[in-house]
Amino acid sequence: MVGYLQWLSVYALALLWSSPAVESVEVISSIEGVYNSSRTPANFPWNTYNYCNAPHVNAKHYIIPPVPGAKLVYLNMVVRHHKRTPDNLYPQENELNAVPWNCSDLRQFSFGGGTTQIFHETVTPDWHPFLSKFWNGTCDEGQLTQGGLEDAVAHGKDFWSVYGQKLRLLHSVNEKDIFVRTSTATRTFQVAGGMLTGMDPALARQSFPVVTQPGTIDSIVPSYSCPKADAIRDAFQSVPAWTDHLEANASLKARLDATLGTTGLADWASWYDHFFDTFTSRTCHSHPLPCNSTGGCVAEADAAKVFAIGDFEYNYIWNAAQNASTYNQLTFGVFFQELVQNFKLFRSGEEKFKARLFVGHDGSMIRLASGLGLGKISPLRWPALGSEIVMEAWQEKESNFVRVIHEGTPVKGLEWMPLDDFITLLQSQVPADILSVCNST
Ligand SMILES: *[C@@H]1O[C@H](CO)[C@@H](O)[C@H](O)[C@H]1NC(C)=O
Ligand SMILES: *[C@@H]1O[C@H](CO)[C@@H](O)[C@H](O)[C@H]1NC(C)=O
Ligand SMILES: *[C@@H]1O[C@H](CO)[C@@H](O)[C@H](O)[C@H]1NC(C)=O
Ligand SMILES: *[C@@H]1O[C@H](CO)[C@@H](O)[C@H](O)[C@H]1NC(C)=O
Ligand SMILES: *[C@@H]1O[C@H](CO)[C@@H](O)[C@H](O)[C@H]1NC(C)=O
Ligand SMILES: *[C@@H]1O[C@H](CO)[C@@H](O)[C@H](O)[C@H]1NC(C)=O
What we know:
The protein is an alpha+beta fold and 441 residues long. The protein is built from 13 helices and 9 strands. It has helices at residues 2-17, 146-166, 186-199, 227-236, 240-248, 250-260, 266-269, 273-284, 300-320, 324-347, 362-371, 419-427, 434-438, and strands spanning 71-80, 108-109, 119-120, 178-182, 355-360, 388-396, 399-406, 409-410, 417-418. The strands form 2 sheets. Strands 1, 4, 5, 6, 7, 8 and 9 form a 7-stranded mixed sheet that branches. The relative contact order is 0.17. Bound molecules: 2-acetamido-2-deoxy-beta-D-glucopyranose (6 copies). Residues 245, 248-249, 309, 312 line the site of one 2-acetamido-2-deoxy-beta-D-glucopyranose. This is Phosphoglycerate mutase-like protein.
């Protein structure tokens, strides 16, 4: 239902803004989303929520602001990495995979500056005494897959189709114009590499610098410690607005536990995150939902419930809960501070880059979306793989404006905001004295 409503508003906006050539609208029956393919079926609207591969800015559907003479001059863009293997494991992981995970076509290079370009491949040996704990095949936990890399390359290509070819903000893919920062997770810099390759296939044989922060204080994930934020979240996950949905879905949870062997595990009981992750990672790669060794399987209808609950939980924690905005600001304030700096640099004419690209995680995207106020328009959904937020700066005569684009579509209310107002919005998400507030309890 959420998806349907969201889509309707997107459609209304598209009508308002664009040509008469908006696609036909018959297909609104089951618009909740796609969870089993990186390709959205052609009879769905192009910007349908697709958990496996979010819609993003692309030349075919890009809407130029209806402001004569305006020129795109700068942008910051934040994306989630693309599809990967599960990040969470069942206690008896091996038996819950009908097919092995195959990553042998994704070469993982890592060679600290030497000239031998070594790469590694994960192998699960069939003689390993702990084989029951892990799936068969050549993929590690949480690893970008070849399919994920291909989606990243396509994403970069679409980025270039707009910001390189259509609008000519960028003339070539080089490190002077494009700043890239990722988290410290391998899959995020692999996605950065895939996107850069998609922007310029000739780059494929060159090196390109990507900035990371130290893992313990990285603001992208985010991974800096903030006990105050943890306490706020614990409190709002202890009230009926949260606990009711766990109680109401207790029979679903019991069925999942019986099939998957997760009974009594706290990490699987406090929210549906791990079920969501372990199901979607499989379905996005055309693996079946888990079946156990005595033939008990997760039903498609139960998976669909988990997907809906996942949306509810993400929206609650980062957007709808009482104190969610404080929680969001404390945990993402450092990243908002970086955005403030970038746009201030741009305003003062000192910004050296034309584009800044950040590759993060679902937790980065949901916090950015919430802090920018996207959740005030409609409930936020679990940020899909490849989810994208672009903050474009446009120049019109002597003034600068910012437009925010979410999953390829301009955001209502943020289509044309004076740059100063946008900086004020970003600044409003940065708590004063964040280090000491985080450590005050
Ligand atoms: C994906 O799921 C939908 C809805 O359950 C189904 O109609 C479709 O055939 C599935 N597609 C693939 C590629 O499995
Ligand atoms: C995983 O490997 C083990 C040991 O070779 C084998 O018994 C089992 O059938 C394999 N499972 C799958 C899903 O291929
Ligand atoms: C894994 O995928 C690669 C590339 O598609 C293929 O060549 C290889 O045979 C696959 N390995 C297995 C064990 O299926
Ligand atoms: C929100 O924060 C206020 C102030 O600390 C507190 O009184 C209230 O109980 C919190 N609400 C929830 C749901 O945790
Ligand atoms: C399960 O959780 C969802 C999401 O909060 C809620 O809408 C639904 O009413 C709950 N109960 C049942 C029985 O599905
Ligand atoms: C498999 O799942 C069914 C329920 O779907 C359960 O009754 C059974 O105990 C499970 N088997 C194992 C080995 O976990």
